[in-house]
Amino acid sequence: MSNFLSYLIHIRGIVQGVGMRPYIYKTAKAFRLTGFVKNKGSSVEIVISGEQWAIDGFLYELTSNPPPNATIYDISVTPHTKAHFRDFKILHSSQNQQMQDSILPDLAVCEECMEDIRNRQDRRFEYAFTNCTNCGPRYSILKDLPYDRENTSMHCFSMCPQCREEYKNPQDRRFHAQPNCCPVCGPKYSLGNCMGEPMECESPVEKTKQLLKEGKIIAIKGIGGYHLVCNAQDEAAIATLRTRKKRPHKPFAIMAAVVEDVLEICTVSPKEKETLANNQRPIVLLNKKGNALLPEIIAPRLHQYGVMLPYTPLHYFLFEDSLKYLIMTSGNISGMSICYKDEDALTQLSEVADYFLIHNREIMTPIDDSVIRVLGEDVLISRCGRGYAPMSLPLDTPFEILALGGNQKASVCFLHHKRAHISQYLGELNFLDACNEYISVINRLGCLLNANPKFFAHDLHPNFFSTQYGKTLGKKSIAVQHHHAHMAGCMAEHEFCGVGIGIIFDGTGMGTDGTIWGGEFLVGSRGEFKRVGHLECVTLQGADSAIEAPWKCALSYLHTMNENIELYLPNIDKQQLQVIKKALQNNVNCYQSSSMGRFFDCVAALTLHRSQISYEAQAAIELESMVDAAITEEYDFSISETEGGFILRYQSILKGVLEDLKNQQPVSVISAKFHNTISRATVVCACHIREKFNLNSIFLSGGVFENSYLLKNIVFGLTRSDFQVFYNRKVPLNDGGLCFGQGAAAASILEGGAYVPSNSYEDYFRTGQLCLCRNHGNSAKN
User: Fold this and answer.
1) Which of 146, 220, 468, 482 is 20 to 30 Å apart from 705, CA to CA?
2) HSE (CB half, 13 Å, CA atoms) of 563?
3) Catalytic center at which residues (predicted)?
4) Do you find a cis peptide bond into 198, omega within 30 degrees of 0?
């Protein structure tokens, strides 16, 4: 025994709910080590005792071959007072309120569990809640850390003797699987009518399949909330769902039974196929094939479907020969939060769904499906939800900060223990229930992390709900300009700490001069920036109404160019045109905007006659869908250098568009030429900025870059011009990533000692050169 040594080991990272303790137990036993392992807060604590060679082997295995779903941030190993253990054990968890690190997202059902479900001899045959240490719900059922059954919504389901035996058996893959259950002791599904009244049926799932085949709409309770489900090959059912859900055009997500079925309706690259089938099982945006297997009404006027594969046992049960594709859309009325409480679902969805398939396990945290796009070999997150959230990224700062995001695609970020913890997508903060859920997630995630932020970061816009809510927290506040937050977030994601060029294209965002920005070229770092170029400003009329009615954008651009408005907007009532023209002439409800998103809306309104939209960026998305990728031509453009920086002029571009319209060029050609022009002009402007500031690293961000054709072309052009190009991948390019950028900017400002007291927003609304983000609140001194 004298050669035996003892060590205390702490592991931080995503190490709970991934089978880490069973893995450590088995590995320690394999090396004949003694001691114990236990969860401590959100980390794992180990004490091992044995010979040095065995301890070295154990540590090598631990760091080289951890469980597949685990992510280790760091491991500390310190000598421990020699202790003699007779065996190696898994001990009960203990709290560590100082060290709450990361929370595991929900995972798709694994193939081993699916084999159990398909086996008629297995006691879990066709059981919808089958899971193990490698799969199943995590974040959505979690009430508190450490991750033990009593801290989840499974606490009210007592394990039967057989499940208990599996849970205690080190050789079983359900060893310490916290949601472990079976048909005897676990949750169950029941079927009800549109009022939630129970229906008598032998099998709720079999009855649900029958109803789907009959064209019915079913509200199905899943892992993170309710889906509204119907047969994706039944055009009448889909049309009914659109009417009832008040969603006339926005595309619906499709769930396909297997990858082979996806290949029948979409072109799928190897990387897209891999992403579809990963254990997050996101919705992946895929190019449509030119067949008519599915109704056009699913994704009207678009070139892509959003497709996912089954991720729970129940999903697999719903498919059979005559049901190959299902519509799976969030269980809500458009614009509102996803329903996850049974009573809310029955109230809000009773006029949408014909039937309800409900289970009796409580959902602790609502979470939408994630949305992914693949660009080459890069996987880009467009909506961070189930499987990816909460996301944890390194951000090395000693400051504890809560970043509150924006109003669109809301999310929040806690900077805690030198990591950024980003919440799931929370929707648009224009509805009371969305605002309430936003506050609830802040409280819940903060509690799980045991975070105690001393500062909060928010958008510059004083009317955003997120900004106004921040003012109620009593913390020291830091306002971060919208487009600087996008740039800072991209820099932080790529762990870049220097000075670079930010190209930020989006729809809106308050600038430091009080105007609306959105076509921005910035130079700066995470903590400060200067506006060195932008799309030429135009006077837009109507504020939010111009976003919802793209023809108003087109009219505003045409008005500045003295063009024949009636000629190019023939589908708009002449009286309406005259009202807006007069408002522009008299500067009534008008504002200056450099928004690239509004420029795209203008061209979409002119070419597609898209006068009104029913979902965000609809016109621009439809314009991208019309691109003929074989077209390489461009329109003329010009860039002027002024005291305010480089200005990308819009007149010559728009004149080219109007000339093509006069000549009745196909929309596909005009769209391609417009996209190519913006791409080329962006590269040329970046070259001018490099020459002036001697900078070569470029950071692309903002919602307009959700346009894959534009992003791909600009990245290609910048790379050919020898720039080092970065863009968001893990964090959304759109406003879903805004909170992360706010946090990164605020941390940098605090670290640089640039936190200066200010009592109003007046600092931001100055003419001249743009400046450091400043704070609103008290001194940063602790």
Assistant:
1) 468
2) 23
3) 21, 39
4) no
Which candidate in 39, 69, 332, 707 is catalytic?
39
Quickly tell me which residue has 């595991």 as its tokens: 104
Residue 510 DSSP class: B
Q: Is 96 a known active-site residue?
A: no
- 3-state secondary structure (DSSP) of residue 751: helix
pTM higher than 0.70, yes or no?
yes
Domains of the chain, earliest start first: 5-90 (3.30.70.100), 103-186 (3.90.870.30), 189-359 (3.90.870.40), 516-520+532-695 (3.30.420.40)
SS3 660: helix
> Rounded CA gap, 315 and 109, in Å?
10
CA distance 503 to 519: 8
**Distance linking the first and last C-alpha atoms of the chain:** 51
Task: Report CA-CA distances (Å) from 266 to 262, 287, 397, 624.
Answer: 6, 6, 44, 18
> What's the distance, CA 587 to chain centroid?
38
| Tokens 């072309």 -> residue | 713
Residue type, 177: A
Contacts of 319 (CB under 8 A, 6+ apart): 257, 310, 326
Q: Which residues of the chain have pLDDT under 70?
A: 1-2, 95-101, 753-782
CA distance 247 to 239: 10
639 SS3 class: strand
Spot the catalytic one: 21, 124, 419, 610.
21
Asked if 526 contacts 488 with a C-beta cutoff of 8 angstroms, the reply is yes
Residue holding tokens 């975070």? 451
Query: To 5 degrees, how large is the angle CA 678–CA 684–CA 689?
Result: 120
Q: What is the pLDDT of residue 84?
A: 76
Residue 250's contacts (CB-CB under 8 Å, 6 or more residues apart) are 334, 614, 615, 618
